């Protein structure tokens, strides 16, 4: 889950890049400080699914 402040900053930075107010290096620097959230797998909480073992 991402905070609303970070989401807002990310949108603002993207818009500033789009209009030329900041360069790509600045945008990348922001991404290093505030990386994008990692989305959880829909199966993350489902322990009933198993991966079959490969047969020899």
Low-confidence stretches: none
Helix content: 40-55%
Largest pleated sheet = none
* β-sheet strand percentage: under 5%
Task: Give a count of the beta strands, DSSP E runs of length 2 or more.
Answer: 0
Structural class: mainly alpha
Q: Mean pLDDT, as a whole number?
A: 79
Total of DSSP H or I helical runs spanning 4+ residues? 2
SSE ordering: HH
* Straight-line distance between termini: 42 Å
* Large-scale geometry: elongated
How many whole angstroms does the radius of gyration measure?
A: 19 Å
Overview of this protein structure:
The chain has a domain at 4-33. With 56 residues, it is mainly alpha-helical. α1 (4-18) runs antiparallel to α2. It has two helices and no strands. It is 45% helix and 0% strand. It has helices at residues 4-18, 24-33. The mean pLDDT is 79. The longest helix is centred in the N-terminal third of the chain and has 15 residues, at 4-18.
Please outline what is shown here.
By secondary structure, the protein is mainly alpha-helical. It has 2 helices and no strands. α1 packs antiparallel against α2.
Explain the layout of strands and helices:
Layout: H1 4-18, H2 24-33
Helix pairs in contact: 1-2
Task: Identify the notable features of this structure and list them briefly.
single chain; 56 residues; mainly alpha; 0% strand; elongated
């Amino acid at each position: 889950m991402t905070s609303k402040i970070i989401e807002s900053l990310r949108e603002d930075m993207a818009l500033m890049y789009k209009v030329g107010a900041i360069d790509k290096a600045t945008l990348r620097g922001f991404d290093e400080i505030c990386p994008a959230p990692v989305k959880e797998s829909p199966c993350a909480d489902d322990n009933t699914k198993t991966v079959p073992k490969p047969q020899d």
